[in-house]
Amino acid sequence: MxxxxxxxxxxxxGERKQIPVNRLTQRPSVYAITLHAGQVLxxxxxxxQKYTLPGGGVEVGEPIEQAxxxxxxxxxxxxxxxxxxxxxxEDFFYYDPLDLAFHGFxxxxxxxxLSDTLLAxxxxxxxxxxxxxxxxxxxxxxxxxxxxxxxTMRLLDQCSSR
Length: 162
Fold this sequence. Notes:
By secondary structure, this protein is α+β, with helices and mostly antiparallel strands. The protein has one domain: Nucleoside Triphosphate Pyrophosphohydrolase (Alpha-Beta Complex). It contains two helices and nine strands. It has helices at about 65-75, 150-160, and strands spanning about 5-10, 15-20, 25-35, 40-45, 50, 55, 80-95, 100-115, 135. Strands 1, 2, 3, 4, 5, 6, 7, 8 and 9 form a nine-stranded mixed sheet that branches.
């Protein structure tokens, strides 16, 4: 019998879970660092009550910047200008609520808001996110984020110092 290869994935609640490699779905995704008046645009997860950057999956054949603009409109209601590529990293993630496992390719961009009306809670097109909100940069720590808090804080520092 052939040996089953496993990969360690992080779960929604920060635990570790071994997943067979053949259960992984490759998922490119894109996220926005959007700053305005000393604040950053964030979402908060319904399951964890931790913050996440707005963004999400890139659809097959969709240019990455177009995907970012679409995701921001769906999740926040804002139109944005995509300004600068900031960072890339891989992630192995197990999404407990749906029993799905992903090999993620995460791209981060600095963005500028072109509009200012955020969606209401009932309008957000994301099953795990509450309404978008502007959060003061100086009130955040890495622990406030659902995932990749250290990376997110480094990117926020980098963008706010410009």
